Sequence to fold (171 residues):
Amino acid sequence: PDALGVSLNNTISLLKVETPAERQAGIKVDSVDTLIDLLKNQAKVLEGEGRIMSILVIAEHDNQSLKPATLNAVTAAQQLGAELEILVVGANCQAVAQAAAAIAGVSKVKLADNAAYEHQLAENVSQLIAKLAPAYSHILAPATTTWKDTLPRAAALLAMNMLSDVLAVLS
Fold:
């Protein structure tokens, strides 16, 4: 091992062991309705003045027009019951943002219009999604090849798991 530059000597030393702080016991609830009320009004899913965090839907488009697959993702997001925002990522795609703003139930459209996003490359867009993600409870996108490539990268940047090809939102 010495000839290979490998040392077999123990290089780890124990400095100190501390007992972790005792955690507070959880709350037992009587019903699902009570649990939902607590999650909405006391849990970390709240933002600002008791407002439930928004859901972000990422638009599918060709920099010219909004694709119908986006409407499928919007419909799924609406079933989750929170405020809905759409992210349009592309170049020279103002018309797409305007079309997204016209979708019923959409409260806000965010537009990332830059030449770097013209082809919606996963390497660029995933970083943008990862930066925006902490402000949202859920991020949805159409089940297209673009987002099947991009969302796993964004999830990895966030050290989170993702679900793909969701067929329905039941509860």
Q: What stands out?
A: The helical segments are 32-41, 69-80, 94-101, 122-132, 145-157. The mean pLDDT is 85. The CA atoms of residues 19 and 25 lie 17 Å apart. The longest strand covers residues 106-113.
